Amino acid sequence: MASQKDTKNRISSVKNIQKITRAMEMVAAARLRRAEQRIEAMRPYADAIRRMTGRVVEASERVDMPLLEERDEIKNVGLLLITGDRGLAGPFNSQIIRAGNRREAELRDENKQVAWYASGKRGVSSLGFRGRDVVIARQGYTDRPAYSNARDLANDIQSEYEEGNVDRVEMVYNHDESAMSK
User: For a designed S-S bond to 149, which of 3, 82, 141, 175 qualifies (C-beta 3.0 to 4.6 A apart)?
Assistant: First the structure.
């Protein structure tokens, strides 16, 4: 049987853990708010890019662009996993990786080859651990992503498409869902 001192120490320990957990929750909530604000600020840009891309596709009959060229037969598909660089994000990264593996199985059932691309340390390391050959791997910028990071990744994947290494590229990522909608 535990002594009174042991019981008091245990109670004290549990209270300290509660304080630490509460502080971690507050930090996570603040980060979530900042991330939601950044996403909200990016929406007008994303909408403008969608409209612009739609106009380019409509005008594609007059424009000769390799990216708008449809391939007759899809043999090679690139899967781009967009994960984070750090853990402690619950199922954030693992859901992306699982979805990528499911999609790979579907593509292989359709007799298609898969080329792996990954953005984020968790995706790169997980694919490497599973013995997948990651053709393009980018890490170290998911905390503060910049346009230049996305441009570099897109240029590398565009080169893969233009060189005929892949016939289609699919992105696997999480979408933003407001905490209020849950």
Answer: 141
In angstroms, what CA-CA distances link 46 with 16, 51, 82, 87, 168? 44, 9, 17, 27, 22
Q: Which of 96, 93, 97 is nearest to 132 (CA)?
A: 97
pLDDT single digits (tens) 76-90: 999 999 888 876 666
Closest by CA to 102, choosing from 177, 175, 170, is 170
The domain locations on the chain are 1-69, 71-180
Mean pLDDT estimate for the chain: 84
Higher pLDDT, 117 or 122: 117
Among 42, 94, 90, 74, residue whose Cα is nearest residue 169: 74
71-180 has which fold? Pyruvate Kinase; Chain: A, domain 1 (3.40.1380)
C-alpha span between 60 and 23 (Å, rounded): 53
Residue pLDDT, tens place only, 46-105: 888 888 877 777 776 666 677 767 778 889 999 999 888 876 666 878 888 999 999 999
Which string of DSSP letters, residue by residue, matches 49-75? Answer: HHHHHHHHHHTTTT---GGGPPPSS--
**How far is residue 123 CA from its own chain's centroid?**
8
